[in-house]
Amino acid sequence: MALAAYEHKFRVRYKDTDQMGIMHHSNYIVLYEMARTEWLRYMGLTYAEIERRGVMSPIIEVHAKYLYPAFYDEVLTVKVFMEEMPSARLIIGSEVYNEQGKLINKGSVTLGFMNAETRRPCRAPEWFIAALEEYIAKEKIEE
Fold first, then answer.
1. φ, ψ for residue 63 (rounded to 5)?
2. Rg (alpha carbons) of the chain, rounded to whole number
């Protein structure tokens, strides 16, 4: 069960497709990032602000499972979610749905936390955890 989730819409552009009019597999990872970035922005946690506060978030691992193709000009819904609070790592799950609501791709991205000055791994900052907890509490109230 997800602690928190967010949805982002994306229209498959011509440049995102191959000769067959199918979205290229590499673009799903880009969709994960777009949705994750917009989710953080929605929470008030832009990557720029996180980095200004001295923390970087390198990607440690990416998983993707391709179930069905996405086609040129289709509007996709990318759902990102978090099932557990981060400690030294933040795992964001992703699901991509086509216009008919069919799950066409699922995956996850694992991000680490790194002190920007020392470039050494660190735990998720307390202010980051507090912002996530505030967002989760707000989302539960609105349900």
1. -125, 140
2. 16
E strands in 36-102: 55-56, 59-66, 75-82, 89-97
What tens digit of pLDDT does each residue of 60-109 get? Answer: 999 999 999 999 999 999 999 999 999 999 999 999 999 999 999 999 99
Q: What pTM value is reported for the model? A: 0.91
* 27 within 8 A of 20, measured Cβ to Cβ: no
From CA 115, how far away is CA 95, in angstroms rounded? 30
Closest CA to 94 of 6, 21, 18, 16: 6
Return the structure tokens found at 103. Answer: 């799950």
